[in-house]
Design brief:
The chain is an alpha/beta fold. It contains two helices and six strands; from the N terminus they run βαβαββββ. The protein has helices spanning 20-30, 40-46, and strands at 8-11, 34-37, 54-56, 77-82, 97-102, 106-110. The strands form two sheets. The protein has a three-stranded parallel β-sheet with strand order 1-2-3. A three-stranded mixed β-sheet has the order 4-5-6, with no helix packed on it. The longest helix is centred in the first third of the chain and has 11 residues, at 20-30.
């Protein structure tokens, strides 16, 4: 999308170099006036492809809200936090509870 409006892009989900999504991200960022990366790791992946001024702003966690709580532990439980694009589980054939916390939503599955 080409506009005459200055754009700042946030890049936080790295894709494999050369993939279609990677190339789309590079195109969008190179059309921006500034690029914000969520980590030095992400910036390093794209540094040879994006030629715009950039900053690193780490996406932190509010530790007053997200902290350990005293709850009984559920056996056979897997917790995954991340992007739905990268969610893949390989589990033994036993009963498991899986808690998925994705950017879009959350769900609990019993396998």
């Amino acid at each position: 999308l080409k506009t005459n409006v200055p754009t700042i892009s946030l890049l936080q989900d790295p894709y494999p170099v050369g993939s279609q999504r990677f190339n789309q991200q590079v195109d969008v960022c190179n059309d921006s006036v500034h690029v914000v990366f969520n980590s030095a790791y992400t910036k390093n992946i794209y540094s040879n492809f994006i030629n715009k001024p950039s900053s690193i702003i780490k996406l932190g966690t509010d530790s007053s809200l997200f902290r350990p709580i005293n709850r009984p532990k559920m056996g056979n439980t897997v917790i995954y936090v991340g992007s739905s694009d990268e969610c893949l589980f390989v589990l033994p054939k036993r009963k498991h509870y899986i808690w998925l916390e994705l950017k879009q939503c959350f769900a609990i599955y019993q396998l």
